[in-house]
């Protein structure tokens, strides 16, 4: 068994009141690595030199906006789906994201909305930047961000797993009792990374064309399946559904993602 008693703070500067958390650093690093990977993939597949320069600049701007969109969307979704009545009774707590509480489903929705807005603003200058192209690109490279965010959850000792007798069970000192638990944060994060690597490889090899919709659809379906399965190894989360419910709120939110992904594949196949 593994005993986990890691502090949430990575670096602390008491004199200036600055404290850098593991989660914050890993979140930022994950977004950076996924953005970097996306730009590298897109420019590698772009053959025109001038277009490649313009594409790089545009995607860098998209990444900056996506970071803000992810934070806002993930926070609002957490408040709506997991916060229960707490945030309605204490609305000032909504902006206090440093206390934790982000939803990956909200992050997905916010990125899609931002992709639609960004495409509308830039597609005349760079016709390849359709909503589908941007979403395909995000679907192919989201893995680093997803993995490191879940590692951040692990460092924070949150989203705890169910009890296990497996030798890799983790005893969390903060709220987990002296019970070995599944490191479900790592299961989920690694699943996302593997999925993303497969999609990225298929796009790079030309098996999946960016802009076809297949990469985004594959990511939606894959993420939903991984999340749905991971929920069986998590302790109860959220205030809207009790522990007596067959499915968790995370599983209910994952089901529409599968239908959306299948719908995108069906539409894409009709365009061939």
UniProtKB/TrEMBL annotation:
UniProt membrane topology term: Multi-pass membrane protein
InterPro entries: Lgt
Class of enzymatic activity (EC top level): transferase
Pfam family, one: LGT
Coarse class of the protein's main subcellular location: membrane
Chain segments annotated as transmembrane: 20-42, 62-82, 102-119, 131-151, 189-207, 214-233, 245-268
Cellular component GO terms held in the UniProt record: plasma membrane
Top-rank lineage group of the source organism: Bacteria
Binding, a 1,2-diacyl-sn-glycero-3-phospho-(1'-sn-glycerol): 150
Protein name: Phosphatidylglycerol--prolipoprotein diacylglyceryl transferase
Protein encoded by which gene: lgt
